[in-house]
Amino acid sequence: MLAMHIPDGFIDAKTSLAAGIIAIAVVALCLRRTSGTLSERQVPLVGMTAAFVFAVQMLNFPVANGTSGHLLGGVLAAVLVGPWAGALAVTVVLAVQGLLFADGGLSALGLNVINMALVGAIVGYAIFVALRRLAPPATRAASSSVAICAGIAAGLAPPLAAAVFTLEYAIGGNGAASVATVFVSMVGVHVLIGIGEGVITALAVSAVMASRPDLVYGAHTEPRRSRGGLIASGAMQ
Amino acid sequence: MNDQIEPPQAAPARPRGRGWVSTPALVVAVLAVAVALAFIVAPHANPNPDGLEKVAMDHGLDSAARDHAMRNSPLAHYGIDGVDDTTLSTGLAGLAGIAATFAIASGAMLLVRVVRRRGEPAERPPASA
User: Fold this and answer.
1) What percent of chain A has pLDDT over 70?
2) Does the distance separating the beta carbons of A189 and B54 come in below 8 Å?
3) B57-88, pLDDT tens digit by residue?
4) Are the C-beta atoms of residues B95 and A55 closer than 8 Å to each other?
5) Could you tell me how many CB contacts below 8 A there are between chain A and chain B?
6) ipTM above 0.95, yes or no
């Protein structure tokens, strides 16, 4: 079984619909934010990021007895191209998986966008930025510092997404299991998946930092108000 | 925002040292890695259910799950309908997904740029939110 997202019917229709509306608002916000900073050069980079996240989501790795995990990819995308374009890249991946690969229910697309694009990319990027602030100033410019912060943020994203899934389950879950049971088992297994997510993200970010550090959005922008960041960074070069 | 990480000027604009590649070369290289992963690694991906699926099976979250509307898609479940060789089937499905995600994400970004260019002069920074 390669990548698997929330299918139809896990969460009731009302909650899925509400999630869909939130997801549309998130996409609209991302498009607005992206239009403020996007350079011509970033166009293929966003496509490249989406394609890479798609490919890596196919690579399930073993995590515990009889369970596998795969990359969510939100933090990786956000560190490479910024939180807004990164969330859009993840959303494109989820839409393609749902429409072409029968992975992730179409009615659950909004739920999956919330968990992997909003939480994974945007909240994950906020965690990355907070970690960058915590890093000793003298080391911040180092490639390894960027990769390590990305790796830790990426490691935290799956359990966070699992917690948000539990919230969605608490609001509209169709299963009989208690919310506490779902929380413990979802967060538990996603802590383990987070280890793989963190390692893969750190390696991928290092690889790009090694050849084109100027293109890595997260290496250059200030924590918030990031819209002018790339332009100011000379990353257009 | 008074405690921002120092601005990006720290990064050299053109660090053309060892390992430097042009942007198109980087994009092509990453896409090539993605395709290689789809053909070489994905067919051997761990077949066990993933985290969500395992929890769903163990605790009956899937009691009301419905069949996927796209279950008859020729690419359903990351394989090509009619291709029996697993490696080829998974690899080609991956290739299709890589092409589709690249095209749609790049296309969306191009569209964003076109819409912006129409909306306001490119020189003027957008009003801050």
Assistant:
1) 92
2) yes
3) 999 988 888 899 999 999 998 999 889 999 99
4) no
5) 317
6) no
Strand partners for A62:
A68
Number of Cα atoms under 13 Å in the Cβ half of residue A93 = 34
Q: Is A2 exposed, middle or buried (0-12, 13-18, 19+ CB in 10 A)?
A: buried
Q: Are A174 and A11 in contact (CB under 8 A)?
A: yes
**Residue to substitute from B46, B73, B75, interface A, most A β-carbons within 10 A:** B46
| Inter-chain residue contact B50 with A186, CB threshold 8 Å | no
- Predicted TM-score of the model (pTM): 0.88
Query: pLDDT of A104-113, one tens digit each?
Result: 999 999 999 9
Please check whether residue A213 is in contact with residue B14, taking contact to mean a CB–CB distance below 8 angstroms: no
For residue B100, what is the DSSP state? H
Q: What is the pLDDT of residues A208-234, one digit of tens each?
A: 999 999 999 999 865 444 444 433 333
Is A67's CB within 8 Å of B49's CB? yes
Which residues in chain A are closer than 8 Å to B76, comparing Cβ atoms?
Answer: 101-102
CB contact under 8 A, A189 and B55: yes
> Please, what sign has the CA dihedral across residues A74, A76, A77, A82?
positive
